[in-house]
Amino acid sequence: MPNRKFADGEVVMGRWPGSVLYYEVQVTRYDDVAHLYTVKYKDGTELALKESDIRSQSSFKHRKSQSSSSSPSRRSSSRSRSRSPGRPAKGRRRSASQSRERKDDKKKTIQETSLALPVLLWFLCKPSENNTKRYNGEPESTEKNDTSCIILEQKLKPDLEVKHVLEQYSLRSRKDEKKKEEIYSEKIFATVKTIEKASSKTKELEFGGRIGTFMLIFFLPATVFYLLLMCKQDDPSLMNFPPLPALESLWETRVFGIFLLWFLLQVLFSLLPIGKVVEGLPLSTGKKLQYRINGLYAFIFTAAAIGILLYFQFELHYLYDHFMQFAVSAAVFSLALSIYLYIRSLKAPEEELAPGGNSGYFIYDFFMGHELNPRIGSFDLKYFCELRPGLIGWVVINLAMLLAEMKIHNLSMPSLSMILVNSFQLLYVVDALWNEEAVLTTMDITHDGFGFMLAFGDLVWVPFVYSLQAFYLVGHPTVISWPVAAAITVVNCIGYYIFRSANSQKNNFRRNPADPKLANLQFIATATGKGLLITGWWGFVRHPNYLGDIIMALAWSLPCGFNHILPYFYVIYFICLLVHREARDEHHCKQKYGLAWERYCQRVPYRIFPYIY
Fold this sequence. Notes:
The chain is of the alpha+beta class. Helices cover about 60% and strands about 5% of the residues. It contains 20 helices and eleven strands.
């Protein structure tokens, strides 16, 4: 085994990968197999370096002393050459004074110009927390910083050589020097701006990239319409493909008008000056957007409006009779909204674009969302659609299905299965609105842009697919006993408890890790200053909130019985969705937290399902 040169705990100078800059680091351990030193920078960043990338501090101090000892002689010789013995004493004194002033000004200018580039390179290459974060707190790989530094050094190297020559031989007038300095400074910052713009582009594409997102734009609406047509059939088996309706039967102007009225009504409720105003997470610029938390008030006002309509004998089962037309209207509206969002994003500043939807490819950015937080004044379009028209509309649709079941089957009260489905999903929606502030920390708000994916998901997929069980029970009534209903209720309560307690732990820890109520929770410190919980629900599995979601989705489907798999589509979809999200979260966390995330994964090996996955 080769001898190691540096011992654990020794303070040395480590080269930052991809650059020629060295920083003070501390050796933490040595890998005998890979022959790599794990070092820790002052900001907490840990990296594995080769022995050739590490130097002792004494070598740097020796160079510094040599450099400082040689400079006085050069300055004295320069002063001796500047004298003019042939001039009168008075003139010589005036000339010497003016010469010293000019030299001081020139020296100051050269120092300022000389310092500009090293400071700039240090800012781009330094291993600090700011340079290990991407827009909205998401991680950015260190390769991006390294590439930026190399590009900047290559682009400015010729200018540096010319500048050093001109400093040695002062052949220009002061006016020319100032002009050159301005041009040089502009070139530096223009280069930096170009590099930053290039580095903000989305490099890793999701959902199969351009081809995958193009297909999803058509596949998602087709899936919704297929599911709704299947529920209308007497035998909704997968092998029994439903007949396609006439195109003219899918559109009704009155239905579209009702949907538009519903959307505007929710906009009105969200603009009411009630509820507290909170700040979101910091953006890439450090700015924090403000959000009004009044979703629960909007739900109460909506419930009052629905109660008034029912009091005046409005037939709410109209939704059931024209369910397909409402789905088409919502899809058309979401497509129009997506087109508007993409067009307006073309004029948005670079810092306001979404890190996940800035690839430069039209289809991909259109699907993922090009702009992060599109707003009309203080009205945030993405935040509004996330919880209001679709989520509250889901509850209204469930109620319409309950009334339709009673009318079609001549029931004096709804079936027990329909009551369970309505109750479970009502609890889920009310919980989301009660904890509305927590949505500000989700990836939908902090990372994803507002494009077709979220617009269609919020306005079409949530209200029309999540209500699939209630829609199915209208045409396929299922009778369950009270003991079975009690067992299903227990399953839903277990899922809800895991979901809510896990999310509460995470949100409270993010807001205030020093809260005395969280003193019993243990965590792993990371280089970003945040901690990874290793006790409580987050020490059980890595994504306990996803586990609770899946258990609740199963409880929503069980009241529909086991005659057909169609009501369980939501469970299958939910598992696929959460596995995709979990994989995305794993990738981002690995980039963001580095070695700390690897230690966390060793401590918590299971992702969603304990002892399984």
